[in-house]
Amino acid sequence: MTRRDSVRLVAGSTLLAGCTIPHHAPTAAELSGAMPMIDAPIVLATWNHGKPATERALAELAAGHSALDAAERGVMVVESECPDRSVGLQGWPDRDGIVTLDAAIMDDTGRSGAVACVRGVAHPIALARRVMDRTPHALLVGPGAEAFARSEGLHTGARPLDPEQERAWREWLRERQYSPRANSENHDTIGMVVRDAKGRMAASCTTSGLAWKMHGRVGDSPLVGAGLYVDPKAGAAVCTGLGEVVMRKLTSCIAVERLRSGASPAEACRDALHRLVEAGPLAANVQVGLIVLAKDGTHAAGALQPGFTYALGTAAGVTLHEAPAVA
Predict the structure, then answer these.
(1) Rounded to 5 degrees, what angle do the CA atoms 284, 49, 225 make?
(2) How far is CA 129 from CA 112, 201, 217, 244, 265, in A?
(3) Spatial strand order in the sheet of 299-303
(4) Which residues, in sequence order, are CB contacts of 77 under 8 Å at separation 6+?
(5) Identified catalytic residue from 14, 54, 189, 298
(6) Which DSSP string corresponds to 263-291?
């Protein structure tokens, strides 16, 4: 068996309570994601912290809001409170003791907005949405993005590190060693894909990036085609993990383009991950997780290494799963 053959994937399809439900009991094929389920909203989000985010996104859909609204407001939950300190202003700082944030959002009309290396913004995903809705641009960075946040009332201002951030940073300064490890902090990023009852789709990513990164470092999360990608005829994908690997291979775009060419979500996920395997040392001993959601609601997930977890929104609620990995 080749490494390509050994990428094992999981797939599923879901219903949201309160929406149109088929009159027949779901078959085993439907429950496994092998068959589409029409008019069935679905939300998937990366890592354990994706569970409360998915719950919020499902609630937004149940209230009649769009897939784009759900993708934005769902991940805001984790921006406000992230137990593993990899998202939002509570995230671990860079090597200079500064917390900088990246975020992006995209819908199925091709519109997108993103911000990178911003400080003092409690909800960078909301700022990314404003970039999409209220500017002619796709990406704002650094002080310029912060100035736009102030004009939009989204800039909360600089604040000192909290005691836990300060302690961890001071400890890191003693040795000043930096070596990304797979699944450290069950991190990083929260990425989300959403399909509403009308079949509209959206995706979002938000992160504080790698702990102890060089100041000014930007990962894959705010880059369309790398951290996230949506195509109106095919579906959507989001990535999580070491951004330097993802951004050099455009993993999300590859996965969605495979959907567009007729591949199933499982095949698209397999092929996109295999591109990383082919990178050899570039992808060795690091983690990249990938979620792929097709237009018809079928989906798949996979990862380079064991340990990538994701949340899945279903008619029964939200459940956590671990995605199979490259052997």
Answers:
(1) 55
(2) 8, 15, 22, 24, 27
(3) 10-12, 299-303, 288-294, 235-241, 228-231
(4) 52, 53, 55, 56
(5) 189
(6) --HHHHHHHHHHHHHTTGGGGTT--EEEE
pLDDT in tens, 214-247: 999 999 999 999 999 999 999 999 999 999 999 9
139-141/10-12 β-pairing: unpaired
* Least confident interval from 73-82, 113-122, 173-182, 276-285: 173-182
Q: Which domains does the chain have, with CATH numbers?
A: 10-322 (3.60.20.30)
C-alpha 198/C-alpha 232 separation (Å) is 12
pTM over 0.90: no
The rounded distance, in Å, linking the Cα atoms of 226 and 203 is 12
Whole-angstrom Cα distance, residue 242 to residue 254?
17
Gap between the Cα atoms of 255 and 293, Å rounded: 10
- The whole-angstrom separation of Cα 246 and Cα 171 is 29
Residue 38: exposed, middle, or buried by beta-carbon count in 10 A (0-12, 13-18, 19+)?
exposed
Q: How far is CA 89 from CA 109, 158, 162, 193, 287, in A?
A: 30, 10, 10, 23, 23
Per the annotation, the verdict on 54 as an active-site residue is no
Q: Which amino acid is at 84?
A: D
* Alpha-carbon span 228 to 128, nearest angstrom: 13
